[in-house]
Amino acid sequence: MRKKIVAGNWKMNKTWEEAKNLLLNINNYVSAHETCEVIVAPPAPFLDKATDIFQSKAKIAAQNVSEYEDGAYTGEISTGILKSINVEIAIIGHSERRSLFGETNEMIGKKVDRALNEGITPIICCGEVLEERKSGNQQKVVSEQLIAALAKVDTDGAKNIIIAYEPVWAIGTGETASPEQAQEMHKAIRDLLAEKYTQAIADEIRILYGGSVKPSNAEDLFSQPDIDGGLVGGASLNAEDFKAIISAGS
Ligand code: PGA
């Protein structure tokens, strides 16, 4: 039985004061309730202090990680740096990284490989843009993204990955994939994982849905057989909304 995950991606939002209050609020909630797995990805400068605040079962993730080990890469953050401050999860290949910062499938494959080698769990993002869905190419696009992201991931590595399907047309737009549309893609992703690894491994991998998840749609989405929780952007910035989504996954 896969335990659900609700992960919040704060993107480039919040001052430290605001972040601290939200982290404390979430930590209190998770400490006092029986919840699904909870992950929060705050902006990078807050990662260290955020891990101190999250004394509960909730975990802190980075929003991105470098494909390089170390060296002259101004502004980048390595897996080793993350590990040294006890951050053990990183979102990799978010659609904003792909579209705004030029990350390619190949780069994402390298980042995933580096993360796993360092013992960091990657949350591997994939998802099609609107034109690709309109032309019926969504499964082809997503499977190409995943084949590249998992190019160097062997069976052991596959046991330590999380996947997030985030149709780009649903991110930050208020438009959500219907539970049926999302389930169809999640099933296709699980089939791809079963083909590459084994059915048993595929059955263990959590596949999250992302794209305008909110309190009003979380339960319907999370009740689909292959949807194992959500990667939440906008609604994770508000304590009450995020807690309601955690409750839907618990
Ligand atoms: P959203 O973002 O929930 O605001 O659509 C999701 C994401 O980008 O991970």
How does this model look, in words?
- There is one protein chain.
- The relative contact order is 0.16.
- The protein has one domain (5-249): Aldolase class I (TIM Barrel, Alpha-Beta Barrel), CATH 3.20.20.
- The chain contains twelve helices and eight strands.
- The protein has an eight-stranded parallel sheet.
- β2, α2 and β3 form a beta-alpha-beta unit.
- With 250 residues, it is α/β, with parallel strands linked by helices.
- It starts with a strand and ends with a helix.
- It is globular and about 45 Å long.
- 2-phosphoglycolic acid (PGA) binds next to β8.
- 2-phosphoglycolic acid binds at residues 9, 166, 171-172, 210-213, 231-235.
List the helices and strands and how they pair.
Elements lengths: L4 E5 L6 H17 L4 E5 L5 H7 L5 E2 L18 H6 L4 E4 L2 H7 L3 H13 L3 E6 L3 H5 L3 H12 L5 H4 L3 E4 L13 H18 L2 H6 L1 E5 L4 H8 L6 E4 L6 H11 L1
Helix pairs in contact: 5-7, 7-9, 11-12
The structure holds 2-phosphoglycolic acid.
2-phosphoglycolic acid (PGA) binds next to strand 8.
**What average pLDDT do the residues reach?**
96
Termini separation comes to 13 Å
Corresponding CATH superfamily: Aldolase class I
**Mind summarizing the main beta sheet?**
8 strands, parallel
| Beta strand % | 5-15%
Q: In the CATH scheme, what's the topology name?
A: TIM Barrel
The CATH class is Alpha Beta
